[in-house]
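Notebook B, p. 112. Complex prediction, attempt 2.
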Amino acid sequence: MTWIVQNLWLIPALPILAAGLSALLKQRSRIPAAALAIGSLAISFLLSLCAFAHTLTHPAIQTFNFNWFQFGNQWLQLGWMLDPLTAVMLVMVTFVGLLIFIYSVGYMEHDENFTRFFCFLALFAGAMLGVVIANSLLLLFMCWEIVGLTSYLLIGFWYAKPEAAAAAKKAFIVTRIGDLGFLIGMVWLYAQSGTLLFYNAGAGCLEASALSHLPVHTAFFGLSAASAIGILIFCGAAGKSGQVPLHVWLPDAMEGPTPVSALIHAATMVAAGVFLIARIYLLMDAQYVIWNGNLPTTVPPVALEVVTWVGAITAVFAALIAVGQWDIKRILAYSTVSQLGYMMMGLGVGGPAVGIFHLITHAFFKALLFLGAGSVIHGCSGEQDIRRMGGLSKSMRVTFLTYMAGMLALCGFPFFFSGFWSKDAILHAAHNWNISQAPFYMGAFGALLTAFYMTRQVYYVFAGSNRLAAATHDDPALAAHFEEPAHPAPHHPHESPAVMTIPLVILAAFAILLGFVGTPAWPWFQSFLEGNSAFLIAGFPEPGVLPVMLSSSLIVLLGLGLGWYFYGRKPIASAEAPDALGELQPQIFSLLGHAFYVDALYGATLIRLNTWWSKVCDWFDRFVWNGAVQTISYLVVGTAWVDNFLDAGIINTGFDSSCESVSRSGDRLSLLQDGRIQSYLRVIGVALIALVIFLLWGAKA
Amino acid sequence: MSSLQSYLLLSALLFSIGLAGALTRRNAILVLIGIELMLNAANLNFIAFWRFGPTPSRLTGIMFAIFSISVAAAEAAVGLGIILAAYRHSRTTDLDQMNSLKG
């Protein structure tokens, strides 16, 4: 057991410790709070690099399991593990997290709740790292829930704003709905395989003995138990990763500060769902053979099909909605949902290597885009509507250049940008999927839409002239309209401070360079994840790669061209001018702008049902349960009254009257003692005579 | 009726008169007189039984009577002293009024 594997627990523990200490700090101790968070995550980053270096030479899975508590004669075990997937995720989370922490120092400078922000950020980082290293589905679930909690706390960071509080609540509840499926799947898995550890020297639930008999048990509708469990756990991943229909919380989550959007809702937390599916991929991929006479047929893993279809639908659905949005962060939010759909699709058609590669590249360029958007918002003094931006390419050069790098990576601009290579891997795997070609075409259409809406966004935000200054000049009421609190009065946009632009530059570099570790000519990343040793010689591309690369390049260029055609030819006139596409097709554009009215649908059905049910429960509680409690209390009071009656009325009275009679008889007896000697003497005399008579009578007899 | 019986009857009569006096008279001195009467009745009893007893020649009865008379005298003196002290305290000789031990 090497040193790093034994001490892997330090990687999540240090940020959580930092969070705990920050929670005790006062509001004005900003430097200690930021130092704790950034320092702990920096140490975690260094440890993650050690772990990564270790897995380069030892790619086999190494675990450290321990007993937690005993029930009956079984022990519940938890543990952590180190393998290529874990190492890659650790490095990504800590590195991107570290950059975003540094960025937040500049972004949250004017906010008075700076300390609380860094406390929550550190807690999030620790919990996310816990999800990554967990070797037990239970430990993963516990950290998963903490991640959800911190997401709630950070989305609702400005809790005094009602929209933020509502968005936080929505995020938590929607992900909780998914987690219900997760929990049921987890319990079922434990019942079937007797353990929740993934790898436990042959006894884990992802290892051969469990996988050999799990798929064979059929559940219902001809599903194998493995697939059913996989689908249930995918419910949790769908909630966390914003797949349709549980995507509704992600756009509203943009109410949180932009670093939160970058870290949680772009790079890491929403990737946790994808990571989970990659982690339990062996379970979802478990196939079994049924014998029809002498012909064996392998029953395909239904779970992976479900993942692929959901992912493909999400990719297109969200990309369509992103076309019609006006808020800079909402466009990126729907883009994230769409890219998560791509990742799930990649997992389903091509396996963990394909999906995780896109996850890693996406983390970098989406974090870059969000941080860039934050820089833009900061420069525009809190304005988030792209109709009121413009001309920032001249006033915010660094932001503009890095944003372009991120945008091109997201669109998948050929060759130089990482997004191209990772998205291409997904499309190639989808093209080779033998069940259906539809996900490939959906993915291609989504790529077209991605290029289109990102071009639209870039033209609105960076090109032309500054519409904010013009608009606020004419409308003083508008000048008072701000999305974020504690920002100074509007002035002409300015570049953000270095503490915010340097992380942008670093992320941009990675957005470009990271693609080259996964090209088909040198698939280092994919082979590393599959457990081969790190230093692989370059191989020739597989057949069929080139046509897919060419067609995806053409699609991207077509999307960029369409974007230029609608938004780039003429400069955008003013903030009130309608959208160019909207002029062409107003009803479709309005449908997209309202996100296909999904929220309204949920509000009319599920929310109304929930409200009705809560009223029923309230009635029940008030009259039935409360009535029962009241009845019991009246019974008790009645018994007490009867008891009082018996005690005071009967017992006391009886006792008192007997005491009275003793007292009265005593009074009467005392009349005998009248103080006169002669009466005493008379009594003596009579007594003496009586005694003599008695004795004489006695003697006689 | 023999002589003895008449003496005994006389002493019983005297005793009861003395008892009645001691128990009913209001004046303290009259109670003392009653007590004296009872003592003398007892003396009479002594003499009667001596005279009509087995050895009338020996002076047994007379010795009894003389002792009894001297005791009666001493006791009368003490009794008078008590009455005087009580009179000085309560300024009356009425026994009915000396009831401070009433309960």
